[in-house]
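Per your request, structure below.
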């Protein structure tokens, strides 16, 4: 199990001790969907399920960026937004490091 160790968010999240699943595909989709800049209606959100280590990108097309998916699970976090708050670029290396530093294993 992993515990959220950063005080960036008030709630505690847990993730099982697994490899990050889907990292290469998710980061590729995220960067492709956000490559045309902020004003492009084509954009993506990088999501992470702390319960099983799965990462994916939700891709949307909306002129005002008014589309989203709502998840009713505390184990799913918007990893891209968390990284963006600290101006961390999204690539495979930084995502892996961010997850390792932000979530630590429980004994």
């Amino acid at each position: 199990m992993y515990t959220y160790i950063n005080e960036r968010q008030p709630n505690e999240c847990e993730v099982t001790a697994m490899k990050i699943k889907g990292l290469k595909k998710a980061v590729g989709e995220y960067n492709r969907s956000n490559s045309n800049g902020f004003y492009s209606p084509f954009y993506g959100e990088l999501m992470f399920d702390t319960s099983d280590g799965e990462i994916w990108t939700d891709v949307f097309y909306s002129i005002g960026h008014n589309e989203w998916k709502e998840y009713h699970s505390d184990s799913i976090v918007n990893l891209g937004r968390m990284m963006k708050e600290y101006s961390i670029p999204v690539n495979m290396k930084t995502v892996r490091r961010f997850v390792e530093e932000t979530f630590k294993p429980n004994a």
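Strands lie at 2-4, 14-15, 42-49, 54-61, 76-78, 103-105.

Regards,
D.
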